[in-house]
Design brief:
single chain; elongated; 252 residues; alpha/beta; 6-stranded mixed β-sheet; 5-stranded mixed β-sheet
Length: 252
């Protein structure tokens, strides 16, 4: 497949033009025109780029790419080495951030719901059809300890669980993969029993305690493995491309 055609396929699927983001979505670094082999992964770190080179990939498709809002514009140091490696090896870099988080079937939030057996009921951000945080209902009520254990087994990472003043039984859950801890107040105001995200801030603990809602910090990387993998699987199935997911370990 032509590299520009692949971007069009991804854009049609993920609709990045509908979402205000902190980085450009789509083809961030142009490489060879013909794409046959794609490596997918969470973040375009040097280790993942090196694996793409060793696998003789034509493209790298990630959730966390480059050129974030507020970062220095200069291409030097670590950024230079990463981009240089991509260009010298003709590897196209495609990145989709929030559009991948919110996709209703392939996205990070949707895949986490599948893994945890949660029925999606809607978005937490009222009036926003592309709400980054969503909420739903567990198939069967769980205690806080039981949900923590399910997260640990499913994501292969023990979550940090804040449960002071929270209900004994969890029926309703809000969640936002990655760095979505500040949506906890929306979840509490909606009367949900628990909120799950990838990260935690110092303030999150106090909010959880004072608003009486369970909070689970389950890992930014751990909660965002599954969207990019499912996107790659979709491309392989629908477009007859050779796609391989590579998980670069990250404990955070």
């Amino acid at each position: 497949m032509n590299n520009i055609q692949l971007e069009s396929v991804l854009n049609e699927l993920l609709s990045p033009h509908q979402i205000k983001d902190y980085c450009p979505n789509g083809l961030q670094v142009e490489g060879k025109s013909e794409v046959k082999k794609i490596i997918t992964g969470v973040t375009a770190c040097q280790a993942l780029i090196d694996r793409a080179i060793s696998e003789q990939a034509d493209a790298l498709l990630v959730h966390h790419g480059f050129f974030w809002k507020g970062e220095p514009a200069e291409i030097r140091g670590m950024k230079y080495r990463r981009i240089k490696a991509l260009i010298e090896n003709g590897i196209n870099l495609y990145a989709y951030h929030l559009p991948l988080d919110v996709h209703p079937t392939l996205g990070n939030n949707a895949k986490l719901a599948e893994l945890l057996d949660i029925e999606v009921l809607g978005g937490l951000e009222e009036g926003n059809p592309n709400s980054v945080a969503i909420y739903g209902q567990l198939a069967q009520p769980l205690s806080g300890e039981e949900l923590a254990a399910r997260l640990s087994i499913t994501l292969h990472r023990e979550p940090l669980h804040i449960s002071d003043n929270a209900p004994q039984e969890i029926k309703t859950v809000g969640w936002c993969t990655g760095g979505g801890q500040d949506f906890i107040e929306l979840a509490a105001n909606k009367g949900l029993d628990a909120f799950i995200s990838g990260e935690i801030s110092e303030r999150t603990v106090h909010i959880s305690r004072e608003l009486g809602i369970h909070y689970f910090s389950a890992g930014h990387h751990a909660t965002e493995r599954y969207g990019i993998k499912s996107l790659g699987d979709y491309l392989a199935e629908k477009n007859n491309l050779d796609v391989e997911f590579i998980d670069i370990d990250n404990p955070v």
